Amino acid sequence: MEINEALTKEVLVHHLTAFGNNDLDEIMKDYTEESEVLTPSGSLKGLTAIRQFFADYFVTIPTGSAFEMKQMTVTHNVGYVAWASDSEIATIPMGTDTFFLEGDKIRFHTVADHRIIK
Predict the structure, then answer these.
(1) Model confidence, pTM
(2) Which residues of 9-39 are buried (b: 16+ CB within 10 A; e: fewer)?
(3) What's the fold here for domain 5-117?
(4) Which of 44, 60, 71, 94 is the most buried (most CB within 10 A)?
(5) In what order do the strands lie in the sheet containing 31-39?
(6) Boundaries of each SnoaL-like domain copy (predicted)?
């Protein structure tokens, strides 16, 4: 399989834009039923669990929250972002996500953040 960094970056930008807009339907286009999100609370597999994960996250970081992209790196079929955010609910001085793609879909996604609830 040819590794296409441009495709990886395209999917990553789509994901981040959909996240910033709190657009659940659009964000879910990046995942399949086989996709898995690995979090500090455990693994979430499948579209239903992943959709709920993002719905919950959007409560903490609603559209319009302050967001700073600290780093975005794409290599082969892997994308990595480090970021910070501030909302009325929480301050997140550091968050990281790593995305492992298969074709144009996110197969594995790790996420962690240092969250300070207000």
Answers:
(1) 0.94
(2) eebbeebbebbeebeeeebbebbeeebbbbe
(3) Nuclear Transport Factor 2; Chain: A, (3.10.450)
(4) 44
(5) 42-45, 31-39, 105-117, 90-102, 78-86, 66-75
(6) 14-116
Query: What is the spatial distance between Cα 34 and Cα 62, in angstroms, rounded to a whole number?
Result: 27
The two tokens of residue 116 are 């300070």
Per-residue HEC secondary structure of 58-88 comes to: HHHCCCCCEEEEEEEEEECCEEEEEEEEECC
Cα(102)–Cα(105) distance, integer angstroms: 6
Residue 34 has, within 13 A of its CA and on its CB side, a CA count of: 6
Residue found by looking up tokens 């970081």 in the block: 61
Output the six-digit token pair for 57.
């996250």
Q: How distant, in Å, are the alpha carbons of 6, 11, 47, 51, 90 from that of 104? A: 10, 7, 16, 18, 32
